[in-house]
Amino acid sequence: MGAGGEQKPPARSGGGVCGGPVRRRLQPIGKPMERRASSLQRIKDAADWKRIGLHQKYADQTMTRPLMRGWFHALTAFIFTALIALDAHTLSPGPVTWFAVVTFVIPYWASTALHCVPWRRRTAHDLALALDFLGISAGFVGQSVGWVGVGTWRGVDEGASWRLRFAAWCARGNVSLAAALAWLLTCALYNRHRQPVMLYCRKARFAIVGANMLLLGCVETALCHDWRLNVALQLLGRVFVPWYFLRCVAVDAGGKGWLPLWDGVWSPHENWHCAILVLHCLQLHAVSIRHDGTSAFVTFLEVVGGSGHAGG
């Protein structure tokens, strides 16, 4: 006891100089190699990477997966990614390259991540599902912007036709709709423990994508000068594709349609994507003729042929 009956404070063992405070060294959270190994382990545990494209169930355990689901997306994405990377400048002008990327690369790789990867973690599956939904809307938006070109952002020239002005406003509207869908999907991911991402605000999502589709149809009708090609685009893209989806592909669809099916291997979903691929090819053909005067597929053949001669 000290003077006045006060208790002395306990002596500090190993105190600093002149009894000063002891400086404690912060323990490292983890060595860089350990943190890197931990990150790699999390990636490894997120999916069964040895069974890519072979799994029969999705991570949500609510839907079965036919054997060919996702392979169609992966093949399409790989081919067009390789063609664009092989000699991207031959797809000039820029809007045509942009159109090809947002039509055949981004959405198809997003679908591949959803359908081909056997996710173990529900969070990873939900994120892939949200990116797949967003990729569909982004495709409509990117195609609208590809048709209009830089006028979407900078504004069209004063002497531009009313068709181009109308198409530019439709493209801007599509951008706004995609932003709304991105916010909706963010909310869906945040609330995924209460309601599945697949069902979160489903009607609102369908309404946004439907509006995306209609606005793209307006852009195509305004800027596609070949009326026969435009009729084919509208009948396939605005009539058959959405009708077949609601009739045969949607989660609550009851029909099977007349197109060929193979139980456990090939479903209406694959038939639907075949129709979409035909539509996308027609769209790329139309937009490249508008901007370049030549079909992009002629350019692709020249690129492949030139590479073959160079390799030989």
Structural summary, described in words:
With 312 residues, this protein is mostly helical. The chain has one domain (53-311). It has helices at 32-46, 71-86, 94-115, 122-148, 151-154, 162-190, 202-223, 227-249, 268-292, 296-311. The N and C termini lie far apart (97 Å). The model is unreliable at 1-18 and 308-312 (pLDDT under 50).
Task: Describe the structure using short key phrases.
64% helix, disordered C terminus, mainly alpha, 0% strand, single chain, 312 residues
- β-strand percent reads under 5%
- Characterize the quaternary organization of these chains: single chain
Principal-axis shape equals: globular
Proportion in helices: 55-70%
Rg over C-alpha atoms, rounded to the nearest angstrom: 27 Å
DSSP helical segment count: 10
The average pLDDT score comes to: 82
Whole-number tally of structural domains = 1
Structural category is mainly alpha
Main location: membrane
InterPro entries: AdipoR/HlyIII-related
Pfam families: HlyIII
Membrane topology: Multi-pass membrane protein
What is the fold's blueprint, element by element?
Elements: H1 32-46, H2 71-86, H3 94-115, H4 122-148, H5 151-154, H6 162-190, H7 202-223, H8 227-249, H9 268-292, H10 296-311
Helix pairs in contact: 2-3, 3-4, 3-9, 4-6, 4-7, 6-7, 7-8, 8-9
Could you give a short description of this structure?
It is built from ten helices and no strands. It has 312 residues and is mainly α.
